[in-house]
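Section 5.1 Outputs to date
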Amino acid sequence: MLVNVVKATEVVHHFQDLISLFETTFFQQYNTRLVKGDKEPVYLPVSETCEYNQIVFAHGYYASALHEISHWCLAGSARRLLEDFGYWYLPDGRDQQQQIEFEKVEIKPQAIEWALCVAVGKKFDVSTDNLSGSGQTDRFAFKDKVYQQVCYYLEDGFPSDAEKFIMILAKHYQRPWPLKLEYFESLNGQ
């Protein structure tokens, strides 16, 4: 039965695999590396101190790497010239209006992240990233918006770099390709 094929398995996910796969897929074309950081995640373009672009993910967390890759895949060439792609970011502690704005800009990258998770066989859940803020969030409503974006991407196509990396990950982790909507439902209980 197909659903059994796509359920999350006991695959061990190592961030080093993501670093290697990203390097072989994108470094030559984009001069960009995925880098394990010791602090908060950030995207750093080429500078006087580093001759390549860096997608820095937090503390070796596999999920952080997938999230940061999703932002990179969504950013166009102009935004890839800017630190953190030119995003504004307020840390945990946002008020209601700030939380609404945060969630608006997170729908597309989290839809890509969800597809990356399906491609590696890892459970996904949305991140509202505001545990101590006054801005209340409806996680179910936000997840539904992300899910609707997944549906759109499955119908009309993911951004090209996202599509490419999703395929690379699915091949590496021996997951079904191309992605289908039912894979998102079976892994995450939609």
